[in-house]
Amino acid sequence: MSDSSQVAAEETELVTGAAGHGGSTRAGHPASLSVTGLTKTYKMGRDDVIYALRDLHLHCEGGDWLTIVGTNGAGKSTLLRTVAGVIKADAGRVDLDGRDITRLADYRRARFIARIEQDSALNVAASLTIAENLAIASMRGKPRRLRIGVTARRRRTFADALVVLGMGLERRLDSPVLELSGGQRQALALVMATMSHARLLLLDEHTGQLDPTAVERVMEVTDQLVTRSAMTTLMVTHNVEHALRFGNRLIMMDRGRVMFELSVEEKRATTTAQLLERFAKESGSALVDEELLFSDATTSHRITPTPEP
Predict the structure, then answer these.
(1) What are the Cα distances from residue 192, in Å, to 90, 135, 185, 198, 230?
(2) Position 49 in a domain
(3) Do the domain assignments include residue 296?
């Protein structure tokens, strides 16, 4: 088999979840993710170098939901973009289900990695209808053939997928997405991600531009859909209360590295104040009113940020 044929075969196995390397897996199962020695630098001026990621190591089992917090400049978004292939690392390796995807282009990774960004306009095709967006998502990773995009059967499937949102979108399948609010767009993007049968979901501050009411509703939808699909998920958030409440693992990042991790049991036993205290102790950063919000019902604190490219 030629090198190109081998790469194509491995991509197909990553899309479908088919067995590889002697393993026995079921189609569409959540993917494991391993990041080894990931480093990314940016030059600032002639001599200064900024580390966005510094020899970062991370492993997620299939079905893990990892929440990621840290100051601005900690490398959170850079990590997600590197896993997605949008940013090329200077060094290190990214493996999905034991397969090296480090050099795989982002558009090829998009067959099995779904990404939802802060700006809802980047996650959907605003000029198309809700049904058309879902039709595109449902064909992710499948062979491209001439076919009717939205059949009656698919419309029923789409309506069933949307009804769980509780937003009435199942009655608006023919509405252009540009008519939706930001929260509705993000909820639609989440449904699209689960409908695409992606095996890894990357959420990059996907509630960052929403109003407080929409934030809570979108997080309820996120919890519902991620839990139901059991999709391996990495979620970057500036809201530490959410980072503690959702998912089964939490990592705190600072200056391109993972400072520490909390298991699901540790998350349940940790308050936002305790997390702040541990961050301050291990990083030496002073707490000031800046970018990163740590909040609960009675307190809010922020951590000194450092620039992230």
Answers:
(1) 32, 9, 10, 10, 15
(2) yes
(3) yes
SS (H, E, C) 253-276: EECCEEEEEEEHHHHHCCCHHHHH
Q: Phi and psi (nearest 5°) for 17? A: 80, 20
Residue 308 belongs to some domain of the structure: no
Does residue 259 carry a pLDDT above 80?
yes
CA count, 13 A, side-chain hemisphere, 53 = 25
Contacts of 142 (CB under 8 A, 6+ apart): none
Alpha helices in 64-164, H assignment, sequence order: 76-84, 106-109, 130-138, 152-163
Domain count, the chain: 1
Contacts of 167 (CB under 8 A, 6+ apart): 184, 187, 217
> Which amino acid would we find at residue 218?
V
For residue 286, the 8-state DSSP code is P
Look up residue 285 and give its DSSP letter: P
| For the chain, the helix, strand and coil percentages under 3-state DSSP, each to the nearest 5 | 35, 25, 40
* CATH code for position 30: 3.40.50.300
Give me 274's structure tokens: 């305790």
**Residues 12-62: pLDDT tens digits?**
556 555 444 433 333 458 899 999 999 999 988 777 889 999 999 999 999
What pLDDT digit, counting tens, does each position of 217-240 carry?
A: 999 999 999 999 999 999 999 999
Total Cβ atoms within 10 A of residue 260: 15
CB environment 187-207: b (16+ within 10 A), e (fewer): bbbbbbbbbbbbbbbbbbbbb
**C-alpha closest to that of 300 among 271, 258, 264:** 271
Cβ-Cβ contacts under 8 Å for 23 (sequence gap 6 or more): 97, 98
> Distance between CA 139 and CA 192 in Å, rounded?
10
Could you tell me if residue 175 is inside a domain? yes
- Structural domain of 149: 3-303
